[in-house]
Prior knowledge:
The chain is α+β, with helices and mostly antiparallel strands. The protein has one domain (3-94): Alpha-Beta Plaits, CATH 3.30.70. 29% of the residues lie in helices and 10% in strands. The protein has helices at residues 16-20, 49-52, 70-78, 82-92, and strands at 3-5, 26-27, 37-38, 58-60. The strands form two sheets. Strands 1-4 form a two-stranded antiparallel ribbon. A two-stranded antiparallel ribbon has the order 2-3.
Amino acid sequence: MAYVITEACIDEVTQDCIDVCPVDCIHFDENLDRKLYIDPNECIDCSACEPACPVDAIFPDNKVPVALSEYVELDARWYKDPAAVRARIDELKPDAASNVA
C-alpha cells in the first residue's frame, strides 16, 4: 500500500505533506506541476502526510474514492512520464488561468 494525492491538490500545492514526510517521497516540479505526487515505490505507508494535507487530498491507495481512482495510476506514472501526466491533469481539471480570453 502507498498513499495517493488526488484532485483536491490540483492548483493548491501547499507542500505541508512534503514537510512531514520522513522519506521525502512526495515530489513535483515547481512551475510545471499543478499537484504533488507520491512515489509508490518510496512511500513507507507511515500516514504522516494524510493529516497534514489542508485540502484532504491524500488517501491510502486502497481507500481512494472510486471517482478519484485514476489518481492512483497518475501518481505512479508521473515518475516515468511526467509530461503525459501533466497533460492528463489538464484534461481532468482545466487550468482556469489558461481559459481566460
